[in-house]
Amino acid sequence: MDREKIKEIRPIIWDDDNNQLILIDQRKLPNKLEYFSCNTYEDVAFAIRDMVVRGAPAIGISAAYGMALAEIKNDNIEKAYNVLKNTRPTAINLFWALNRCKNAHNNNKPIIDEAKLIHKEDREICKKIGKIGEKIINDGDTILTHCNAGALATSSYGTALSVIRFAHYGGKNIRVIVDETRPRLQGAKLSAFELNYEGIPVRIITDNTAGFLMKKGLVDKVIVGADRILKDYTVFNKIGTYSLAILAKYHNIPFYVAAPLSTFDFKNSLKDIEIEERDEKEVLFIDGIRIAPEGVRAYNYAFDITPPELITGIITEKEIITLNKTSYI
Ligand code: MRU
Questions:
Q1: Residues framing ligand 1 (Cβ under 6 A)
Q2: Is the pTM of this model over 0.85?
Q3: Low-confidence ranges of the chain (pLDDT < 70)
Q4: Within the chain, which residue ranges are assigned CATH 3.40.50.10470?
Protein backbone atom coordinates (compact mmCIF):
# COMPACT_ATOMS: atom_id res chain seq x y z
CA MET A 1 0.00 0.00 0.00
CA ASP A 2 1.20 3.50 -0.79
CA ARG A 3 2.21 5.29 2.43
CA GLU A 4 1.26 8.68 0.98
CA LYS A 5 -2.34 7.59 0.43
CA ILE A 6 -2.84 7.03 4.14
CA LYS A 7 -4.22 9.95 6.11
CA GLU A 8 -1.45 10.64 8.59
CA ILE A 9 -2.41 10.66 12.26
CA ARG A 10 -1.34 13.98 13.78
CA PRO A 11 -2.34 14.28 17.41
CA ILE A 12 -1.00 17.82 17.93
CA ILE A 13 -2.03 20.82 15.80
CA TRP A 14 -1.08 24.45 16.33
CA ASP A 15 -3.72 26.87 15.04
CA ASP A 16 -1.89 30.08 14.14
CA ASP A 17 -5.06 32.04 13.36
CA ASN A 18 -6.51 31.59 16.83
CA ASN A 19 -3.34 30.98 18.86
CA GLN A 20 -4.73 27.66 19.96
CA LEU A 21 -3.31 24.21 20.58
CA ILE A 22 -5.60 21.50 19.30
CA LEU A 23 -5.08 17.96 20.57
CA ILE A 24 -6.73 14.70 19.64
CA ASP A 25 -8.50 13.78 22.87
CA GLN A 26 -6.87 10.40 23.48
CA ARG A 27 -9.20 9.70 26.41
CA LYS A 28 -12.03 9.25 23.90
CA LEU A 29 -10.34 6.95 21.39
CA PRO A 30 -11.08 4.59 19.73
CA ASN A 31 -14.82 5.19 19.96
CA LYS A 32 -14.77 8.93 19.31
CA LEU A 33 -12.33 11.12 17.41
CA GLU A 34 -12.71 14.40 19.27
CA TYR A 35 -10.42 17.38 19.67
CA PHE A 36 -9.48 19.25 22.83
CA SER A 37 -8.58 22.93 22.47
CA CYS A 38 -6.05 24.62 24.73
CA ASN A 39 -6.16 28.40 24.97
CA THR A 40 -3.93 28.80 28.02
CA TYR A 41 -0.92 27.05 29.51
CA GLU A 42 -3.22 25.85 32.31
CA ASP A 43 -5.35 24.06 29.68
CA VAL A 44 -2.20 22.36 28.39
CA ALA A 45 -1.15 21.37 31.92
CA PHE A 46 -4.58 19.82 32.45
CA ALA A 47 -4.38 17.99 29.10
CA ILE A 48 -1.02 16.44 30.03
CA ARG A 49 -2.04 15.52 33.59
CA ASP A 50 -5.37 14.01 32.54
CA MET A 51 -3.77 12.23 29.56
CA VAL A 52 -5.72 13.97 26.82
CA VAL A 53 -2.24 13.88 25.31
CA ARG A 54 0.33 11.32 26.44
CA GLY A 55 3.51 9.59 25.29
CA ALA A 56 6.90 11.13 26.02
CA PRO A 57 7.53 13.13 22.79
CA ALA A 58 3.89 14.30 22.54
CA ILE A 59 3.98 15.52 26.14
CA GLY A 60 7.15 17.49 25.36
CA ILE A 61 5.73 19.09 22.20
CA SER A 62 2.46 20.01 23.95
CA ALA A 63 4.31 21.52 26.92
CA ALA A 64 6.35 23.63 24.48
CA TYR A 65 3.13 25.02 23.00
CA GLY A 66 1.93 25.59 26.58
CA MET A 67 4.98 27.80 27.17
CA ALA A 68 4.23 29.59 23.88
CA LEU A 69 0.66 30.25 25.02
CA ALA A 70 1.98 31.68 28.29
CA GLU A 71 4.21 34.07 26.35
CA ILE A 72 1.46 35.05 23.91
CA LYS A 73 -0.91 35.81 26.82
CA ASN A 74 1.76 37.72 28.76
CA ASP A 75 1.63 35.25 31.65
CA ASN A 76 4.49 34.81 34.06
CA ILE A 77 6.88 32.47 32.20
CA GLU A 78 8.53 31.09 35.33
CA LYS A 79 5.13 30.19 36.77
CA ALA A 80 4.01 28.54 33.53
CA TYR A 81 7.27 26.58 33.43
CA ASN A 82 6.71 25.30 36.96
CA VAL A 83 3.06 24.40 36.44
CA LEU A 84 3.86 22.48 33.24
CA LYS A 85 6.91 20.84 34.86
CA ASN A 86 4.75 19.41 37.61
CA THR A 87 2.27 17.63 35.38
CA ARG A 88 3.97 14.24 34.94
CA PRO A 89 7.35 13.34 36.46
CA THR A 90 8.86 10.43 34.53
CA ALA A 91 9.10 11.24 30.81
CA ILE A 92 12.20 13.38 30.35
CA ASN A 93 10.99 14.91 27.07
CA LEU A 94 8.73 17.17 29.13
CA PHE A 95 11.66 18.80 30.95
CA TRP A 96 13.83 18.80 27.82
CA ALA A 97 11.19 20.71 25.83
CA LEU A 98 10.41 23.13 28.66
CA ASN A 99 14.10 23.97 29.04
CA ARG A 100 14.46 24.59 25.32
CA CYS A 101 11.53 27.01 25.48
CA LYS A 102 12.83 28.80 28.56
CA ASN A 103 16.24 29.23 26.90
CA ALA A 104 14.57 30.60 23.76
CA HIS A 105 12.64 33.10 25.88
CA ASN A 106 15.80 34.14 27.75
CA ASN A 107 17.49 34.71 24.38
CA ASN A 108 14.62 36.89 23.14
CA LYS A 109 13.46 34.29 20.65
CA PRO A 110 9.66 33.85 20.44
CA ILE A 111 8.73 30.63 22.25
CA ILE A 112 6.19 29.79 19.56
CA ASP A 113 9.02 29.50 17.02
CA GLU A 114 10.89 27.12 19.31
CA ALA A 115 7.72 25.07 19.93
CA LYS A 116 7.08 24.78 16.19
CA LEU A 117 10.69 23.73 15.68
CA ILE A 118 10.47 21.02 18.37
CA HIS A 119 7.27 19.80 16.73
CA LYS A 120 8.75 19.74 13.22
CA GLU A 121 11.99 18.10 14.35
CA ASP A 122 10.09 15.34 16.12
CA ARG A 123 8.34 14.31 12.92
CA GLU A 124 11.66 14.03 11.07
CA ILE A 125 13.23 12.15 13.99
CA CYS A 126 10.37 9.64 14.14
CA LYS A 127 10.73 9.01 10.41
CA LYS A 128 14.45 8.40 10.82
CA ILE A 129 13.81 5.97 13.70
CA GLY A 130 11.45 4.06 11.44
CA LYS A 131 13.86 3.99 8.49
CA ILE A 132 16.81 2.88 10.60
CA GLY A 133 14.81 0.47 12.76
CA GLU A 134 12.95 -1.39 10.03
CA LYS A 135 16.20 -3.22 9.18
CA ILE A 136 15.79 -5.40 12.29
CA ILE A 137 12.46 -6.71 10.99
CA ASN A 138 12.32 -9.77 8.78
CA ASP A 139 9.64 -10.57 6.26
CA GLY A 140 7.03 -12.67 8.08
CA ASP A 141 7.85 -11.40 11.58
CA THR A 142 5.27 -11.07 14.31
CA ILE A 143 6.13 -8.14 16.55
CA LEU A 144 4.83 -7.60 20.05
CA THR A 145 4.54 -4.01 21.25
CA HIS A 146 3.46 -2.51 24.55
CA CYS A 147 1.46 0.62 25.42
CA ASN A 148 1.39 3.13 22.56
CA ALA A 149 4.67 4.36 21.15
CA GLY A 150 2.93 5.39 17.97
CA ALA A 151 1.87 8.50 16.07
CA LEU A 152 -0.43 9.40 18.94
CA ALA A 153 2.52 9.46 21.35
CA THR A 154 4.61 11.75 19.11
CA SER A 155 4.09 14.33 16.37
CA SER A 156 3.43 11.52 13.88
CA TYR A 157 4.73 8.04 12.90
CA GLY A 158 5.78 7.16 16.47
CA THR A 159 8.92 5.40 17.64
CA ALA A 160 8.23 1.65 18.04
CA LEU A 161 5.29 1.96 15.64
CA SER A 162 7.40 3.95 13.18
CA VAL A 163 9.69 0.92 12.89
CA ILE A 164 6.62 -1.24 12.30
CA ARG A 165 5.14 1.27 9.80
CA PHE A 166 8.34 1.45 7.75
CA ALA A 167 8.63 -2.35 7.65
CA HIS A 168 5.00 -2.67 6.54
CA TYR A 169 5.11 0.09 3.92
CA GLY A 170 8.46 -1.24 2.72
CA GLY A 171 6.62 -4.39 1.67
CA LYS A 172 7.45 -6.73 4.55
CA ASN A 173 4.66 -9.04 5.50
CA ILE A 174 4.39 -8.47 9.23
CA ARG A 175 1.86 -8.89 12.01
CA VAL A 176 1.60 -6.97 15.22
CA ILE A 177 0.45 -8.07 18.65
CA VAL A 178 -0.43 -5.33 21.13
CA ASP A 179 -1.02 -6.02 24.74
CA GLU A 180 -3.90 -4.17 26.38
CA THR A 181 -1.66 -2.20 28.74
CA ARG A 182 -3.81 -1.97 31.82
CA PRO A 183 -5.00 0.20 33.39
CA ARG A 184 -5.29 2.94 30.74
CA LEU A 185 -5.37 0.48 27.83
CA GLN A 186 -3.08 2.43 25.50
CA GLY A 187 -2.34 -0.83 23.62
CA ALA A 188 -5.93 -1.92 23.09
CA LYS A 189 -7.30 1.56 22.52
CA LEU A 190 -4.53 3.54 20.84
CA SER A 191 -2.00 1.23 19.17
CA ALA A 192 -4.75 -1.05 17.89
CA PHE A 193 -6.59 2.04 16.57
CA GLU A 194 -3.53 3.35 14.71
CA LEU A 195 -2.53 0.04 13.18
CA ASN A 196 -6.06 -0.94 12.21
CA TYR A 197 -6.62 2.53 10.68
CA GLU A 198 -3.69 1.91 8.35
CA GLY A 199 -4.51 -1.71 7.60
CA ILE A 200 -1.50 -3.16 9.41
CA PRO A 201 -2.52 -6.61 10.70
CA VAL A 202 -2.97 -6.39 14.49
CA ARG A 203 -4.29 -8.54 17.30
CA ILE A 204 -4.85 -7.59 20.93
CA ILE A 205 -3.88 -9.78 23.88
CA THR A 206 -4.41 -9.35 27.58
CA ASP A 207 -1.25 -8.34 29.38
CA ASN A 208 -0.87 -11.78 30.92
CA THR A 209 -0.92 -13.62 27.56
CA ALA A 210 2.55 -12.59 26.33
CA GLY A 211 4.53 -15.42 27.99
CA PHE A 212 2.23 -18.09 26.61
CA LEU A 213 2.52 -16.73 23.05
CA MET A 214 6.29 -16.51 23.32
CA LYS A 215 6.46 -20.11 24.53
CA LYS A 216 4.34 -21.15 21.52
CA GLY A 217 6.81 -19.43 19.21
CA LEU A 218 4.31 -16.80 18.07
CA VAL A 219 6.46 -13.74 18.82
CA ASP A 220 9.58 -12.97 16.78
CA LYS A 221 10.49 -9.59 18.25
CA VAL A 222 9.43 -7.14 20.92
CA ILE A 223 9.68 -3.39 20.25
CA VAL A 224 8.66 -0.79 22.82
CA GLY A 225 9.15 2.94 23.36
CA ALA A 226 10.78 4.73 26.29
CA ASP A 227 10.06 7.63 28.62
CA ARG A 228 13.63 8.02 29.79
CA ILE A 229 16.93 6.24 29.10
CA LEU A 230 19.87 6.67 31.45
CA LYS A 231 23.48 6.81 30.30
CA ASP A 232 23.99 3.14 31.24
CA TYR A 233 20.94 2.39 28.98
CA THR A 234 18.52 1.65 31.81
CA VAL A 235 15.07 2.20 30.30
CA PHE A 236 12.01 3.71 31.98
CA ASN A 237 8.84 2.86 30.11
CA LYS A 238 5.19 1.95 30.63
CA ILE A 239 4.55 -0.43 33.51
CA GLY A 240 4.82 -3.99 32.20
CA THR A 241 7.84 -3.33 29.98
CA TYR A 242 10.17 -4.94 32.53
CA SER A 243 8.06 -8.13 32.69
CA LEU A 244 8.04 -8.35 28.89
CA ALA A 245 11.81 -7.89 28.76
CA ILE A 246 12.32 -10.76 31.21
CA LEU A 247 9.95 -12.97 29.24
CA ALA A 248 11.74 -12.10 25.99
CA LYS A 249 15.13 -12.87 27.51
CA TYR A 250 13.92 -16.25 28.80
CA HIS A 251 12.54 -17.16 25.38
CA ASN A 252 15.54 -15.71 23.53
CA ILE A 253 13.42 -13.20 21.63
CA PRO A 254 15.09 -9.92 20.59
CA PHE A 255 13.84 -7.04 22.72
CA TYR A 256 14.26 -3.54 21.21
CA VAL A 257 13.58 -0.06 22.53
CA ALA A 258 12.92 2.73 20.00
CA ALA A 259 13.38 6.30 21.22
CA PRO A 260 14.67 9.69 20.11
CA LEU A 261 17.89 11.05 21.61
CA SER A 262 15.76 13.61 23.50
CA THR A 263 14.63 10.69 25.69
CA PHE A 264 18.18 10.12 26.95
CA ASP A 265 19.05 11.46 30.40
CA PHE A 266 22.83 11.79 30.70
CA LYS A 267 22.67 13.68 34.01
CA ASN A 268 20.56 11.77 36.48
CA SER A 269 20.96 8.31 37.96
CA LEU A 270 18.41 5.70 38.98
CA LYS A 271 17.74 7.09 42.45
CA ASP A 272 16.93 10.57 41.08
CA ILE A 273 14.03 9.48 38.88
CA GLU A 274 10.47 9.62 40.13
CA ILE A 275 8.19 6.87 38.95
CA GLU A 276 4.76 8.39 38.51
CA GLU A 277 2.05 6.95 40.74
CA ARG A 278 -1.42 7.67 39.39
CA ASP A 279 -4.83 7.56 41.02
CA GLU A 280 -5.74 4.10 42.35
CA LYS A 281 -9.16 4.54 40.76
CA GLU A 282 -7.58 3.84 37.35
CA VAL A 283 -7.05 0.24 38.55
CA LEU A 284 -10.09 -0.18 40.79
CA PHE A 285 -12.69 1.05 38.30
CA ILE A 286 -13.40 0.23 34.67
CA ASP A 287 -15.65 2.68 32.80
CA GLY A 288 -16.84 4.07 36.12
CA ILE A 289 -17.75 0.66 37.55
CA ARG A 290 -15.83 -0.58 40.56
CA ILE A 291 -14.33 -4.01 39.83
CA ALA A 292 -12.68 -4.58 43.21
CA PRO A 293 -14.24 -4.91 46.68
CA GLU A 294 -14.90 -1.66 48.56
CA GLY A 295 -12.05 -0.83 50.87
CA VAL A 296 -9.36 -2.67 48.85
CA ARG A 297 -6.54 -0.47 47.65
CA ALA A 298 -4.36 -0.76 44.53
CA TYR A 299 -0.85 0.01 43.34
CA ASN A 300 -0.84 2.18 40.24
CA TYR A 301 2.74 2.81 39.18
CA ALA A 302 2.68 4.18 35.64
CA PHE A 303 6.22 3.14 34.67
CA ASP A 304 8.85 0.51 35.43
CA ILE A 305 12.58 0.15 34.95
CA THR A 306 14.26 -2.26 32.53
CA PRO A 307 18.00 -2.89 32.99
CA PRO A 308 20.27 -2.88 29.92
CA GLU A 309 21.13 -6.57 30.22
CA LEU A 310 17.57 -7.40 29.11
CA ILE A 311 17.68 -5.16 26.03
CA THR A 312 18.96 -6.31 22.64
CA GLY A 313 19.29 -2.81 21.21
CA ILE A 314 18.09 0.77 21.28
CA ILE A 315 16.92 2.31 17.99
CA THR A 316 17.49 6.07 17.78
CA GLU A 317 17.36 8.54 14.90
CA LYS A 318 21.13 8.16 14.50
CA GLU A 319 21.84 4.44 14.90
CA ILE A 320 20.91 1.16 16.48
CA ILE A 321 22.87 0.80 19.71
CA THR A 322 23.47 -2.90 20.20
CA LEU A 323 23.53 -3.88 23.86
CA ASN A 324 23.21 -7.67 23.86
CA LYS A 325 23.22 -10.32 21.20
CA THR A 326 20.53 -12.96 21.05
CA SER A 327 21.03 -16.17 19.13
CA TYR A 328 18.32 -15.01 16.71
CA ILE A 329 20.35 -12.12 15.30
O1 MRU B 1 1.48 6.97 30.34
P2 MRU B 1 1.78 7.18 28.89
O3 MRU B 1 0.70 6.73 27.98
O4 MRU B 1 2.23 8.61 28.63
O5 MRU B 1 3.04 6.26 28.62
C6 MRU B 1 3.58 6.19 27.32
C7 MRU B 1 4.71 5.26 27.20
O8 MRU B 1 5.12 4.63 28.15
C9 MRU B 1 5.39 5.19 25.87
O10 MRU B 1 5.89 3.93 25.64
C11 MRU B 1 6.55 6.19 25.84
O12 MRU B 1 6.13 7.45 26.28
C13 MRU B 1 7.17 6.29 24.51
S14 MRU B 1 6.12 7.13 23.36
C15 MRU B 1 6.92 7.22 21.87
A1: 54-57, 91, 147, 149, 153-154, 158-159, 186, 225-227, 237-238, 302
A2: yes
A3: 1-6, 326-329
A4: 134-322
